[in-house]
Amino acid sequence: MSGDGTRVFVLDGEDLVRGRIMVPLRYIVAIPHYIWLGIFRLFVLIALPLNWLLTVIMGRQPTMLYEFLSGYIRYRSDVLSYLTLLADPYPGFAAMRSYPVETWVPSSQPASRVSYLFRPILVLPAAIVVHLAEFVLIALTIVGFFASIILGRMPYALQRLGLMILRLIGETSGYAFLIQRKYPSIAPRSGERF
Description:
The protein has one domain (7-176). It is built from 7 helices and 2 strands. It has helices at 22-29, 31-58, 63-83, 113-117, 119-122, 124-151, 156-176; strands spanning 7-10, 101-104.
């Protein structure tokens, strides 16, 4: 894949049907993911300053930190897809397996040290937009929850809007984690299937 932004794809064959009984139960069966995501997030918070410092000094992101941080973005995307009813199957605990909502993270690319140096400041406007978009995602999840119980499926338009927000969350994380050079955008990227 070309380009330097995080992308979200819905794999062909992803069904919008949601089991009426499993819709409310998914928040209980996802408890191990809450715990694992919390532990993962602690290590990410430790890795971020180290990643920033080494990237500014070396002019490129260390491979091990790139793999760790991009794995976190993919795993969090899988869990969020499940919890927000954007995808139905229970996610795995490793971000490497195939999932109906697939998050593609760009390969590590060198950029100027100055852009890395000021990245924590540059990401702030996008982080504010993402924070506001998360409220929209919560509202979509609530509407999708009741729609899935009543209709037995997630409405197509809600899923697509939720996927756009999920991609924005991933892009902003990728930009903040120094993985991608392109500034986060709500607009769909070329080749993205929503």
